[in-house]
Specification:
Layout lengths: L2 H18 L9 H9 L2 E6 L5 H9 L16 E7 L7 E4 L10 H16 L10 E7 L5 E5 L15 H13 L4 E8 L8 H9 L6 E6 L11 H4 L11 E2 L5 H5 L4 H14 L12 H41 L7 H24 L6 H16 L3 H4 L2 H12 L9 H12 L3 H25 L7 H35 L3 H12 L7 H12 L2 H41 L2 H8 L3 H7 L4 H30 L1
Length: 622
Protein backbone atom coordinates (compact mmCIF):
# COMPACT_ATOMS: atom_id res chain seq x y z
CA UNK A 1 0.00 0.00 0.00
CA UNK A 2 1.41 3.44 -0.97
CA UNK A 3 2.10 6.20 1.54
CA UNK A 4 -0.83 8.26 0.30
CA UNK A 5 -3.17 5.26 0.43
CA UNK A 6 -2.06 4.81 4.03
CA UNK A 7 -2.81 8.44 4.75
CA UNK A 8 -6.26 8.25 3.15
CA UNK A 9 -6.93 5.18 5.26
CA UNK A 10 -5.79 7.10 8.32
CA UNK A 11 -8.17 9.95 7.49
CA UNK A 12 -10.96 7.39 7.26
CA UNK A 13 -10.03 5.99 10.66
CA UNK A 14 -9.94 9.45 12.21
CA UNK A 15 -13.38 10.25 10.81
CA UNK A 16 -14.77 6.99 12.09
CA UNK A 17 -13.15 7.41 15.48
CA UNK A 18 -14.48 10.96 15.77
CA UNK A 19 -17.94 9.55 15.15
CA UNK A 20 -17.54 6.60 17.51
CA UNK A 21 -16.24 8.83 20.29
CA UNK A 22 -18.99 11.36 19.82
CA UNK A 23 -16.98 14.26 18.40
CA UNK A 24 -18.78 14.66 15.09
CA UNK A 25 -22.14 16.30 15.49
CA UNK A 26 -21.71 16.66 19.24
CA UNK A 27 -19.39 19.65 18.77
CA UNK A 28 -17.36 18.53 21.78
CA UNK A 29 -14.98 21.40 21.16
CA UNK A 30 -14.34 23.78 18.31
CA UNK A 31 -11.13 21.90 17.57
CA UNK A 32 -12.93 18.56 17.21
CA UNK A 33 -15.57 20.10 14.95
CA UNK A 34 -12.92 21.81 12.84
CA UNK A 35 -10.92 18.60 12.63
CA UNK A 36 -13.90 16.68 11.29
CA UNK A 37 -14.68 19.37 8.74
CA UNK A 38 -11.04 19.59 7.65
CA UNK A 39 -11.07 15.91 6.63
CA UNK A 40 -12.34 15.48 3.06
CA UNK A 41 -15.22 13.19 2.17
CA UNK A 42 -17.36 12.55 -0.90
CA UNK A 43 -21.09 13.33 -0.90
CA UNK A 44 -23.18 11.55 -3.53
CA UNK A 45 -25.92 13.82 -4.86
CA UNK A 46 -28.62 13.15 -7.42
CA UNK A 47 -32.29 13.08 -8.14
CA UNK A 48 -34.46 10.12 -7.29
CA UNK A 49 -33.86 7.14 -9.60
CA UNK A 50 -30.75 8.80 -11.04
CA UNK A 51 -28.68 5.69 -10.30
CA UNK A 52 -26.95 6.86 -7.12
CA UNK A 53 -27.27 3.51 -5.39
CA UNK A 54 -25.94 1.63 -8.38
CA UNK A 55 -22.91 3.93 -8.61
CA UNK A 56 -22.11 3.36 -4.94
CA UNK A 57 -22.50 -0.40 -5.29
CA UNK A 58 -20.26 -0.37 -8.35
CA UNK A 59 -17.53 1.48 -6.43
CA UNK A 60 -17.83 -0.91 -3.49
CA UNK A 61 -18.25 -4.00 -5.64
CA UNK A 62 -21.09 -5.24 -3.48
CA UNK A 63 -24.87 -5.32 -3.72
CA UNK A 64 -25.89 -3.93 -0.32
CA UNK A 65 -28.22 -0.93 -0.67
CA UNK A 66 -32.04 -1.01 -0.37
CA UNK A 67 -33.91 -0.66 -3.62
CA UNK A 68 -37.42 0.27 -4.61
CA UNK A 69 -39.56 2.93 -6.20
CA UNK A 70 -39.82 6.50 -4.97
CA UNK A 71 -37.65 7.69 -2.11
CA UNK A 72 -35.51 4.81 -0.85
CA UNK A 73 -32.61 6.60 0.85
CA UNK A 74 -34.35 8.40 3.73
CA UNK A 75 -31.36 8.94 6.00
CA UNK A 76 -27.80 9.93 5.11
CA UNK A 77 -25.54 6.88 4.86
CA UNK A 78 -21.93 7.62 5.82
CA UNK A 79 -20.08 4.84 4.03
CA UNK A 80 -16.40 4.37 4.85
CA UNK A 81 -14.38 2.04 2.64
CA UNK A 82 -11.26 0.50 4.15
CA UNK A 83 -8.83 -1.33 1.91
CA UNK A 84 -7.38 -4.41 3.63
CA UNK A 85 -4.43 -6.49 2.51
CA UNK A 86 -4.46 -10.08 1.36
CA UNK A 87 -7.38 -12.24 0.36
CA UNK A 88 -9.48 -11.58 3.46
CA UNK A 89 -13.24 -11.88 3.17
CA UNK A 90 -15.23 -8.70 2.75
CA UNK A 91 -17.19 -7.65 5.80
CA UNK A 92 -19.24 -4.70 7.08
CA UNK A 93 -19.70 -3.05 10.48
CA UNK A 94 -22.40 -0.63 11.61
CA UNK A 95 -21.60 2.02 14.19
CA UNK A 96 -24.82 1.21 16.06
CA UNK A 97 -23.81 -2.48 16.13
CA UNK A 98 -20.19 -2.26 17.31
CA UNK A 99 -17.85 -5.27 17.05
CA UNK A 100 -20.33 -7.23 14.93
CA UNK A 101 -18.85 -8.19 11.56
CA UNK A 102 -21.41 -8.91 8.84
CA UNK A 103 -20.22 -10.92 5.85
CA UNK A 104 -23.68 -11.45 4.31
CA UNK A 105 -24.38 -8.21 2.48
CA UNK A 106 -28.05 -9.08 2.13
CA UNK A 107 -28.16 -8.62 5.91
CA UNK A 108 -26.41 -5.27 5.48
CA UNK A 109 -29.19 -4.14 3.14
CA UNK A 110 -31.84 -5.32 5.61
CA UNK A 111 -30.15 -3.57 8.54
CA UNK A 112 -29.97 -0.29 6.61
CA UNK A 113 -33.69 -0.55 5.97
CA UNK A 114 -34.49 -1.55 9.57
CA UNK A 115 -32.30 1.17 11.07
CA UNK A 116 -33.95 3.75 8.81
CA UNK A 117 -37.38 2.58 9.96
CA UNK A 118 -36.33 2.83 13.63
CA UNK A 119 -35.97 6.59 13.24
CA UNK A 120 -38.47 7.46 10.51
CA UNK A 121 -41.01 4.69 10.94
CA UNK A 122 -42.30 2.74 7.98
CA UNK A 123 -43.47 5.91 6.28
CA UNK A 124 -41.78 7.96 3.57
CA UNK A 125 -40.47 10.48 6.10
CA UNK A 126 -36.78 11.49 6.11
CA UNK A 127 -34.34 12.09 8.94
CA UNK A 128 -30.98 13.95 9.05
CA UNK A 129 -29.59 11.42 11.58
CA UNK A 130 -26.94 9.50 9.62
CA UNK A 131 -26.34 5.76 9.50
CA UNK A 132 -22.63 4.93 9.75
CA UNK A 133 -21.40 1.89 7.85
CA UNK A 134 -17.84 0.68 7.30
CA UNK A 135 -16.92 -1.88 4.63
CA UNK A 136 -13.57 -3.66 4.71
CA UNK A 137 -12.37 -5.28 1.50
CA UNK A 138 -9.21 -5.83 -0.55
CA UNK A 139 -11.20 -4.73 -3.62
CA UNK A 140 -11.96 -1.13 -2.58
CA UNK A 141 -9.99 2.10 -2.31
CA UNK A 142 -9.88 4.09 0.93
CA UNK A 143 -12.79 6.51 0.67
CA UNK A 144 -15.54 8.10 2.74
CA UNK A 145 -18.74 8.36 0.73
CA UNK A 146 -21.99 9.90 1.95
CA UNK A 147 -25.15 8.71 0.25
CA UNK A 148 -27.82 11.40 0.57
CA UNK A 149 -31.58 11.19 -0.08
CA UNK A 150 -32.47 11.79 -3.71
CA UNK A 151 -33.60 15.27 -4.66
CA UNK A 152 -37.29 15.49 -5.53
CA UNK A 153 -39.77 18.11 -6.63
CA UNK A 154 -43.12 16.91 -5.29
CA UNK A 155 -44.34 15.16 -2.17
CA UNK A 156 -45.99 11.79 -2.48
CA UNK A 157 -48.61 10.28 -0.20
CA UNK A 158 -47.35 10.03 3.38
CA UNK A 159 -44.81 12.83 3.00
CA UNK A 160 -45.12 16.42 4.22
CA UNK A 161 -45.49 19.16 1.62
CA UNK A 162 -42.08 20.49 2.64
CA UNK A 163 -40.28 17.24 1.74
CA UNK A 164 -38.56 18.68 -1.35
CA UNK A 165 -37.16 21.63 0.62
CA UNK A 166 -36.27 19.41 3.58
CA UNK A 167 -34.19 17.10 1.36
CA UNK A 168 -32.50 20.04 -0.36
CA UNK A 169 -31.60 21.59 3.01
CA UNK A 170 -30.14 18.28 4.20
CA UNK A 171 -28.08 17.89 1.04
CA UNK A 172 -26.83 21.48 1.30
CA UNK A 173 -25.73 20.96 4.91
CA UNK A 174 -23.20 18.43 3.62
CA UNK A 175 -22.06 19.81 0.27
CA UNK A 176 -21.65 23.42 1.44
CA UNK A 177 -18.62 22.41 3.52
CA UNK A 178 -15.45 23.49 1.69
CA UNK A 179 -13.79 20.08 2.10
CA UNK A 180 -16.73 18.12 0.74
CA UNK A 181 -16.22 16.64 -2.74
CA UNK A 182 -19.51 16.56 -4.66
CA UNK A 183 -20.26 13.52 -6.75
CA UNK A 184 -23.12 14.82 -8.93
CA UNK A 185 -25.07 11.92 -10.47
CA UNK A 186 -27.11 12.66 -13.59
CA UNK A 187 -28.86 10.13 -15.89
CA UNK A 188 -27.66 10.34 -19.49
CA UNK A 189 -31.16 9.80 -20.87
CA UNK A 190 -32.28 13.18 -19.50
CA UNK A 191 -31.25 16.68 -20.56
CA UNK A 192 -28.24 17.76 -18.48
CA UNK A 193 -29.79 21.23 -18.20
CA UNK A 194 -32.52 19.75 -16.00
CA UNK A 195 -30.17 17.82 -13.72
CA UNK A 196 -31.04 18.36 -10.05
CA UNK A 197 -27.52 17.35 -9.01
CA UNK A 198 -25.74 19.79 -11.34
CA UNK A 199 -28.11 22.59 -10.36
CA UNK A 200 -27.47 22.34 -6.61
CA UNK A 201 -23.75 21.63 -7.10
CA UNK A 202 -23.37 24.79 -9.18
CA UNK A 203 -25.04 26.84 -6.44
CA UNK A 204 -22.61 25.75 -3.71
CA UNK A 205 -19.55 25.24 -5.96
CA UNK A 206 -19.89 27.75 -8.81
CA UNK A 207 -16.28 27.26 -9.95
CA UNK A 208 -16.76 23.48 -10.17
CA UNK A 209 -13.53 22.83 -8.28
CA UNK A 210 -15.18 20.37 -5.89
CA UNK A 211 -17.65 18.77 -8.29
CA UNK A 212 -17.23 15.51 -10.17
CA UNK A 213 -19.89 14.86 -12.79
CA UNK A 214 -21.11 11.29 -13.31
CA UNK A 215 -23.38 10.22 -16.15
CA UNK A 216 -25.37 7.05 -15.58
CA UNK A 217 -27.62 4.99 -17.84
CA UNK A 218 -25.56 5.60 -20.99
CA UNK A 219 -26.79 2.25 -22.30
CA UNK A 220 -30.42 3.40 -22.01
CA UNK A 221 -30.16 6.41 -24.35
CA UNK A 222 -32.24 6.48 -27.52
CA UNK A 223 -30.59 4.88 -30.51
CA UNK A 224 -28.61 7.31 -32.58
CA UNK A 225 -27.89 9.56 -29.60
CA UNK A 226 -24.92 9.76 -27.27
CA UNK A 227 -23.62 11.81 -24.39
CA UNK A 228 -20.28 12.86 -25.88
CA UNK A 229 -21.09 16.58 -25.59
CA UNK A 230 -21.44 16.13 -21.85
CA UNK A 231 -18.58 13.66 -21.33
CA UNK A 232 -16.15 15.80 -23.34
CA UNK A 233 -17.20 18.95 -21.49
CA UNK A 234 -18.90 20.84 -24.31
CA UNK A 235 -22.41 20.96 -22.81
CA UNK A 236 -21.37 21.73 -19.24
CA UNK A 237 -17.72 22.11 -18.29
CA UNK A 238 -16.37 21.14 -14.90
CA UNK A 239 -12.86 21.46 -13.50
CA UNK A 240 -12.69 17.66 -13.38
CA UNK A 241 -13.52 15.25 -16.23
CA UNK A 242 -16.96 13.72 -16.51
CA UNK A 243 -17.17 9.98 -15.97
CA UNK A 244 -19.69 7.70 -17.65
CA UNK A 245 -21.11 4.72 -15.78
CA UNK A 246 -23.08 1.72 -16.99
CA UNK A 247 -24.95 0.19 -14.09
CA UNK A 248 -26.47 -3.24 -13.86
CA UNK A 249 -29.79 -3.58 -15.61
CA UNK A 250 -32.89 -4.45 -13.66
CA UNK A 251 -32.72 -7.92 -15.17
CA UNK A 252 -29.17 -8.32 -13.89
CA UNK A 253 -30.28 -7.15 -10.44
CA UNK A 254 -33.18 -9.60 -10.44
CA UNK A 255 -30.76 -12.38 -11.40
CA UNK A 256 -28.30 -11.32 -8.65
CA UNK A 257 -25.53 -10.86 -11.19
CA UNK A 258 -22.24 -10.58 -9.30
CA UNK A 259 -20.77 -7.06 -9.10
CA UNK A 260 -17.40 -8.32 -10.37
CA UNK A 261 -19.15 -9.68 -13.44
CA UNK A 262 -21.04 -6.40 -13.80
CA UNK A 263 -17.75 -4.46 -13.73
CA UNK A 264 -16.38 -6.68 -16.52
CA UNK A 265 -19.50 -6.11 -18.60
CA UNK A 266 -19.15 -2.34 -18.01
CA UNK A 267 -15.55 -2.39 -19.28
CA UNK A 268 -16.58 -4.39 -22.33
CA UNK A 269 -19.39 -1.91 -23.06
CA UNK A 270 -17.04 1.07 -23.23
CA UNK A 271 -14.26 -0.80 -25.04
CA UNK A 272 -16.62 -2.00 -27.79
CA UNK A 273 -18.78 1.15 -28.01
CA UNK A 274 -18.36 3.08 -31.27
CA UNK A 275 -19.30 6.30 -29.43
CA UNK A 276 -17.23 5.94 -26.28
CA UNK A 277 -14.42 3.59 -27.27
CA UNK A 278 -11.86 6.40 -27.42
CA UNK A 279 -12.79 7.30 -23.83
CA UNK A 280 -12.90 3.74 -22.50
CA UNK A 281 -9.86 4.15 -20.24
CA UNK A 282 -11.53 7.11 -18.51
CA UNK A 283 -14.98 5.59 -18.07
CA UNK A 284 -16.54 3.14 -15.62
CA UNK A 285 -16.98 2.72 -11.89
CA UNK A 286 -13.45 1.40 -11.35
CA UNK A 287 -11.95 4.49 -12.98
CA UNK A 288 -14.30 6.72 -10.97
CA UNK A 289 -13.10 5.18 -7.70
CA UNK A 290 -9.45 5.67 -8.70
CA UNK A 291 -10.14 9.24 -9.84
CA UNK A 292 -11.76 10.11 -6.51
CA UNK A 293 -8.93 8.45 -4.61
CA UNK A 294 -6.31 10.41 -6.59
CA UNK A 295 -8.18 13.65 -5.94
CA UNK A 296 -8.35 12.84 -2.26
CA UNK A 297 -4.61 12.32 -2.31
CA UNK A 298 -4.03 15.80 -3.70
CA UNK A 299 -6.51 17.38 -1.26
CA UNK A 300 -4.98 15.62 1.73
CA UNK A 301 -1.45 16.42 0.56
CA UNK A 302 -2.36 20.11 0.46
CA UNK A 303 -4.06 19.98 3.82
CA UNK A 304 -1.50 17.94 5.76
CA UNK A 305 -0.12 21.04 7.58
CA UNK A 306 -3.56 22.27 8.66
CA UNK A 307 -4.74 18.77 9.60
CA UNK A 308 -1.59 18.28 11.68
CA UNK A 309 -2.12 21.66 13.33
CA UNK A 310 -5.72 20.81 14.20
CA UNK A 311 -4.70 17.40 15.55
CA UNK A 312 -2.02 19.04 17.74
CA UNK A 313 -4.58 21.55 19.00
CA UNK A 314 -6.99 18.73 19.75
CA UNK A 315 -4.30 16.82 21.63
CA UNK A 316 -3.59 19.90 23.75
CA UNK A 317 -7.29 20.25 24.58
CA UNK A 318 -7.57 16.56 25.43
CA UNK A 319 -4.51 16.63 27.67
CA UNK A 320 -5.90 19.70 29.40
CA UNK A 321 -9.21 17.92 29.89
CA UNK A 322 -7.43 14.83 31.22
CA UNK A 323 -5.63 17.03 33.74
CA UNK A 324 -8.98 18.57 34.67
CA UNK A 325 -10.67 15.18 35.01
CA UNK A 326 -7.70 13.70 36.84
CA UNK A 327 -5.61 10.69 36.03
CA UNK A 328 -6.76 7.16 36.93
CA UNK A 329 -6.33 6.19 40.59
CA UNK A 330 -3.77 3.58 41.59
CA UNK A 331 -5.04 0.40 43.25
CA UNK A 332 -2.59 0.01 46.14
CA UNK A 333 -3.46 1.51 49.53
CA UNK A 334 -0.29 3.59 49.82
CA UNK A 335 -0.90 5.38 46.53
CA UNK A 336 -4.55 5.91 47.40
CA UNK A 337 -3.63 7.41 50.77
CA UNK A 338 -1.12 9.67 49.04
CA UNK A 339 -3.83 10.77 46.61
CA UNK A 340 -6.30 11.52 49.42
CA UNK A 341 -3.75 13.58 51.35
CA UNK A 342 -2.90 15.49 48.19
CA UNK A 343 -6.57 16.28 47.61
CA UNK A 344 -6.92 17.42 51.22
CA UNK A 345 -3.93 19.71 50.83
CA UNK A 346 -5.44 21.19 47.68
CA UNK A 347 -8.65 21.96 49.58
CA UNK A 348 -6.72 23.31 52.59
CA UNK A 349 -4.71 25.63 50.33
CA UNK A 350 -7.85 27.15 48.83
CA UNK A 351 -9.45 27.50 52.27
CA UNK A 352 -6.41 29.42 53.54
CA UNK A 353 -6.49 31.64 50.47
CA UNK A 354 -10.04 32.64 51.43
CA UNK A 355 -8.92 33.51 54.95
CA UNK A 356 -5.75 35.33 53.94
CA UNK A 357 -7.29 37.42 51.17
CA UNK A 358 -6.17 35.53 48.07
CA UNK A 359 -9.85 34.71 47.50
CA UNK A 360 -12.94 36.58 48.75
CA UNK A 361 -14.59 35.74 52.08
CA UNK A 362 -12.05 36.37 54.82
CA UNK A 363 -13.12 40.02 55.04
CA UNK A 364 -16.46 38.86 56.43
CA UNK A 365 -14.69 37.81 59.65
CA UNK A 366 -13.26 41.31 60.03
CA UNK A 367 -16.77 42.67 59.46
CA UNK A 368 -17.94 40.69 62.51
CA UNK A 369 -15.33 42.45 64.69
CA UNK A 370 -15.54 45.89 63.11
CA UNK A 371 -19.32 46.23 62.74
CA UNK A 372 -21.39 43.47 64.30
CA UNK A 373 -19.61 43.32 67.69
CA UNK A 374 -19.52 47.12 68.28
CA UNK A 375 -23.17 47.40 67.22
CA UNK A 376 -24.13 44.61 69.64
CA UNK A 377 -22.21 46.32 72.48
CA UNK A 378 -23.95 49.62 71.83
CA UNK A 379 -27.36 47.95 72.03
CA UNK A 380 -26.81 46.48 75.49
CA UNK A 381 -29.53 47.72 77.94
CA UNK A 382 -27.22 49.63 80.32
CA UNK A 383 -29.55 52.64 80.38
CA UNK A 384 -32.28 50.50 81.93
CA UNK A 385 -29.95 48.65 84.26
CA UNK A 386 -28.35 51.89 85.52
CA UNK A 387 -31.53 53.94 85.73
CA UNK A 388 -32.06 55.91 88.96
CA UNK A 389 -34.84 53.63 90.07
CA UNK A 390 -32.82 50.42 89.51
CA UNK A 391 -29.67 51.86 91.12
CA UNK A 392 -31.69 52.77 94.26
CA UNK A 393 -33.22 49.31 94.29
CA UNK A 394 -29.91 47.42 93.87
CA UNK A 395 -28.02 49.58 96.41
CA UNK A 396 -30.80 49.38 98.98
CA UNK A 397 -31.04 45.59 98.59
CA UNK A 398 -27.29 45.30 98.94
CA UNK A 399 -27.32 47.39 102.17
CA UNK A 400 -29.87 45.21 103.91
CA UNK A 401 -31.04 46.48 107.33
CA UNK A 402 -27.87 48.56 107.76
CA UNK A 403 -27.51 51.42 105.23
CA UNK A 404 -24.00 51.99 103.93
CA UNK A 405 -21.91 54.44 105.93
CA UNK A 406 -19.58 55.93 103.30
CA UNK A 407 -19.62 54.25 99.85
CA UNK A 408 -22.04 51.46 98.93
CA UNK A 409 -19.37 48.93 97.90
CA UNK A 410 -21.74 45.97 97.74
CA UNK A 411 -24.17 48.03 95.69
CA UNK A 412 -21.39 48.95 93.28
CA UNK A 413 -20.33 45.34 92.95
CA UNK A 414 -23.85 44.15 92.24
CA UNK A 415 -24.45 46.88 89.68
CA UNK A 416 -21.15 46.17 87.95
CA UNK A 417 -21.61 42.39 87.99
CA UNK A 418 -25.13 42.74 86.66
CA UNK A 419 -23.88 45.00 83.86
CA UNK A 420 -20.98 42.73 82.97
CA UNK A 421 -23.30 39.76 82.53
CA UNK A 422 -24.78 41.51 79.47
CA UNK A 423 -21.44 41.14 77.66
CA UNK A 424 -21.90 37.37 77.43
CA UNK A 425 -24.47 37.74 74.64
CA UNK A 426 -22.25 39.75 72.20
CA UNK A 427 -19.29 37.51 73.04
CA UNK A 428 -21.21 34.34 72.11
CA UNK A 429 -22.77 36.05 69.08
CA UNK A 430 -19.31 36.94 67.74
CA UNK A 431 -18.21 33.34 68.10
CA UNK A 432 -21.30 32.08 66.28
CA UNK A 433 -21.00 34.66 63.50
CA UNK A 434 -17.38 33.71 62.78
CA UNK A 435 -18.38 30.03 62.90
CA UNK A 436 -20.98 30.63 60.19
CA UNK A 437 -18.43 32.43 58.01
CA UNK A 438 -15.91 29.61 58.42
CA UNK A 439 -18.51 26.98 57.49
CA UNK A 440 -19.44 28.92 54.37
CA UNK A 441 -15.77 29.29 53.40
CA UNK A 442 -15.31 25.54 53.84
CA UNK A 443 -18.28 24.90 51.56
CA UNK A 444 -16.95 27.29 48.92
CA UNK A 445 -13.44 25.86 49.17
CA UNK A 446 -14.69 22.31 48.61
CA UNK A 447 -16.68 23.47 45.60
CA UNK A 448 -13.67 25.35 44.20
CA UNK A 449 -11.24 22.46 44.60
CA UNK A 450 -11.40 21.07 41.08
CA UNK A 451 -9.48 17.92 42.00
CA UNK A 452 -12.20 16.96 44.51
CA UNK A 453 -15.10 17.12 42.06
CA UNK A 454 -14.43 13.63 40.78
CA UNK A 455 -14.75 12.14 44.30
CA UNK A 456 -18.17 12.94 45.80
CA UNK A 457 -17.69 10.49 48.69
CA UNK A 458 -14.41 12.11 49.72
CA UNK A 459 -16.03 15.53 49.39
CA UNK A 460 -18.73 14.50 51.84
CA UNK A 461 -16.17 13.05 54.28
CA UNK A 462 -14.06 16.21 54.21
CA UNK A 463 -17.17 18.35 54.68
CA UNK A 464 -18.24 16.27 57.70
CA UNK A 465 -14.75 16.34 59.21
CA UNK A 466 -14.44 20.12 58.82
CA UNK A 467 -17.87 20.74 60.36
CA UNK A 468 -16.90 18.57 63.32
CA UNK A 469 -13.59 20.43 63.73
CA UNK A 470 -15.25 23.84 63.46
CA UNK A 471 -17.72 22.82 66.16
CA UNK A 472 -14.83 21.98 68.47
CA UNK A 473 -13.18 25.29 67.71
CA UNK A 474 -16.45 27.11 68.40
CA UNK A 475 -16.83 25.49 71.81
CA UNK A 476 -13.27 26.41 72.76
CA UNK A 477 -13.80 29.93 71.48
CA UNK A 478 -16.97 30.35 73.53
CA UNK A 479 -15.18 29.19 76.64
CA UNK A 480 -12.35 31.65 75.99
CA UNK A 481 -14.55 34.68 75.27
CA UNK A 482 -16.89 34.01 78.20
CA UNK A 483 -13.84 33.55 80.36
CA UNK A 484 -12.78 37.07 79.39
CA UNK A 485 -16.16 38.39 80.57
CA UNK A 486 -15.99 36.36 83.76
CA UNK A 487 -12.48 37.66 84.47
CA UNK A 488 -13.80 41.22 84.36
CA UNK A 489 -16.44 40.21 86.92
CA UNK A 490 -14.07 38.33 89.19
CA UNK A 491 -11.69 41.22 89.79
CA UNK A 492 -12.71 44.86 89.49
CA UNK A 493 -10.13 47.53 88.76
CA UNK A 494 -9.00 48.96 92.16
CA UNK A 495 -8.35 52.47 90.89
CA UNK A 496 -12.04 52.85 90.26
CA UNK A 497 -12.88 52.35 93.97
CA UNK A 498 -10.02 54.49 95.21
CA UNK A 499 -11.52 57.52 93.57
CA UNK A 500 -14.85 57.17 95.37
CA UNK A 501 -13.95 58.56 98.90
CA UNK A 502 -12.39 61.64 97.34
CA UNK A 503 -15.49 62.30 95.31
CA UNK A 504 -17.65 61.95 98.48
CA UNK A 505 -15.54 64.44 100.41
CA UNK A 506 -15.75 66.95 97.54
CA UNK A 507 -19.50 67.09 98.05
CA UNK A 508 -19.13 69.37 101.23
CA UNK A 509 -17.10 72.49 102.11
CA UNK A 510 -13.57 71.47 103.21
CA UNK A 511 -13.21 74.75 105.26
CA UNK A 512 -16.20 73.81 107.44
CA UNK A 513 -16.07 70.13 108.45
CA UNK A 514 -19.43 70.25 110.17
CA UNK A 515 -21.26 71.64 107.16
CA UNK A 516 -19.42 69.19 104.89
CA UNK A 517 -20.47 66.24 107.03
CA UNK A 518 -24.04 67.46 107.07
CA UNK A 519 -24.06 67.88 103.33
CA UNK A 520 -22.53 64.44 102.91
CA UNK A 521 -25.14 62.81 105.07
CA UNK A 522 -27.94 64.53 103.19
CA UNK A 523 -26.46 63.71 99.75
CA UNK A 524 -25.65 60.10 100.58
CA UNK A 525 -29.32 59.19 100.51
CA UNK A 526 -30.47 61.66 97.87
CA UNK A 527 -31.00 61.30 94.12
CA UNK A 528 -27.72 62.98 93.31
CA UNK A 529 -25.87 60.35 95.26
CA UNK A 530 -27.53 57.51 93.31
CA UNK A 531 -27.01 59.29 90.01
CA UNK A 532 -23.29 59.51 90.78
CA UNK A 533 -23.27 55.78 91.54
CA UNK A 534 -24.97 55.05 88.21
CA UNK A 535 -22.58 57.39 86.40
CA UNK A 536 -19.54 55.80 88.02
CA UNK A 537 -20.73 52.30 87.14
CA UNK A 538 -21.49 53.40 83.56
CA UNK A 539 -18.00 54.82 83.26
CA UNK A 540 -16.47 51.59 84.51
CA UNK A 541 -18.63 49.50 82.16
CA UNK A 542 -17.55 51.71 79.25
CA UNK A 543 -13.94 51.02 80.11
CA UNK A 544 -14.63 47.27 80.24
CA UNK A 545 -16.57 47.45 76.95
CA UNK A 546 -13.59 49.02 75.22
CA UNK A 547 -11.36 46.30 76.60
CA UNK A 548 -13.67 43.48 75.51
CA UNK A 549 -14.12 45.03 72.11
CA UNK A 550 -10.39 44.43 71.60
CA UNK A 551 -9.93 41.15 73.45
CA UNK A 552 -12.98 39.22 72.17
CA UNK A 553 -11.72 39.34 68.53
CA UNK A 554 -8.29 38.19 69.72
CA UNK A 555 -9.81 35.19 71.49
CA UNK A 556 -12.06 34.34 68.54
CA UNK A 557 -9.23 34.53 66.01
CA UNK A 558 -6.91 32.53 68.27
CA UNK A 559 -9.44 29.78 69.02
CA UNK A 560 -11.29 29.57 65.70
CA UNK A 561 -9.54 31.20 62.74
CA UNK A 562 -6.00 30.29 63.76
CA UNK A 563 -7.01 26.74 64.60
CA UNK A 564 -8.92 26.39 61.33
CA UNK A 565 -5.82 27.45 59.42
CA UNK A 566 -3.48 25.18 61.33
CA UNK A 567 -5.42 22.07 62.23
CA UNK A 568 -8.74 21.96 60.39
CA UNK A 569 -8.14 18.42 59.06
CA UNK A 570 -5.75 17.08 61.71
CA UNK A 571 -8.32 14.74 63.23
CA UNK A 572 -9.37 13.65 59.72
CA UNK A 573 -5.75 12.81 58.87
CA UNK A 574 -5.53 10.59 61.94
CA UNK A 575 -8.71 8.75 60.98
CA UNK A 576 -7.60 8.34 57.35
CA UNK A 577 -4.33 6.77 58.49
CA UNK A 578 -6.28 4.04 60.27
CA UNK A 579 -8.43 3.06 57.28
CA UNK A 580 -8.01 -0.18 55.33
CA UNK A 581 -7.44 -0.33 51.57
CA UNK A 582 -11.10 -1.09 50.89
CA UNK A 583 -12.23 1.95 52.88
CA UNK A 584 -9.73 4.16 51.05
CA UNK A 585 -11.07 2.86 47.73
CA UNK A 586 -14.58 3.78 48.80
CA UNK A 587 -13.46 7.35 49.51
CA UNK A 588 -12.05 7.51 45.98
CA UNK A 589 -15.20 6.07 44.44
CA UNK A 590 -15.79 8.32 41.43
CA UNK A 591 -18.95 9.40 39.70
CA UNK A 592 -19.56 6.74 36.97
CA UNK A 593 -20.37 9.47 34.43
CA UNK A 594 -17.02 11.11 35.09
CA UNK A 595 -15.18 7.81 34.80
CA UNK A 596 -16.85 7.21 31.45
CA UNK A 597 -15.94 10.72 30.34
CA UNK A 598 -12.28 10.15 31.26
CA UNK A 599 -12.26 6.81 29.44
CA UNK A 600 -13.64 8.42 26.30
CA UNK A 601 -11.16 11.27 26.62
CA UNK A 602 -8.28 8.80 26.94
CA UNK A 603 -9.47 6.97 23.81
CA UNK A 604 -9.60 10.25 21.88
CA UNK A 605 -6.15 11.18 23.09
CA UNK A 606 -4.73 7.81 22.06
CA UNK A 607 -6.37 8.09 18.64
CA UNK A 608 -5.10 11.58 17.88
CA UNK A 609 -1.56 10.86 19.08
CA UNK A 610 -1.47 7.79 16.83
CA UNK A 611 -2.87 9.88 13.98
CA UNK A 612 -0.23 12.55 14.49
CA UNK A 613 2.57 9.98 14.52
CA UNK A 614 1.25 8.26 11.40
CA UNK A 615 0.78 11.53 9.53
CA UNK A 616 4.31 12.57 10.46
CA UNK A 617 5.62 9.22 9.25
CA UNK A 618 3.76 9.44 5.93
CA UNK A 619 4.72 13.11 5.46
CA UNK A 620 8.43 12.25 5.63
CA UNK A 621 8.00 9.61 2.95
CA UNK A 622 6.18 11.90 0.50
Amino acid sequence: MSSMESLIGLVNRIQRACTVLGDHGAAHTNAFSSLWESLPSVAVVGGQSSGKSSVLESIVGRDFLPRGSGIVTRRPLVLQLHKIEGEAEDYAEFLHMPKRKITDFALVRKEIQDETDRITGKTKQISPVPIHLSIYSPNVVNLTLIDLPGLTKVAIEGQPESIAQDIENMVRSYIEKPNCIILAISPANQDIATSDAIKIAREVDPSGERTFGVLTKLDLMDKGTNALDVLEGRSYRLQHPWVGIVNRSQADINKNVDMIVARRKEREYFETSPDYGHLANKMGSEYLAKLLSQHLESVIRARIPSITSLINKTIEELESEMDHLGRPIALDAGAQLYTILGLCRAFDRIFKEHLDGGRPGGDRIYNVFDNQLPAALRKLPFDRHLSLQNVKKVVSEADGYQPHLIAPEQGYRRLIEGSLSYFRGPAEASVDAVHIVLKELVRKSIAETQELKRFPTLQAEIAAATVEALERFREESKKATLRLVDMESSYLTVEFFRRLPQEVEKAGNPANPASAAAASNVDRYGEGHFRRIGSNVSSYIGMVSDTLRNTIPKAVVYCQVREAKQSLLNHFYIQIGKKEAKQLSQLLDEDPALMERRQQCAKRLELYKAARDEIDSVSWSL
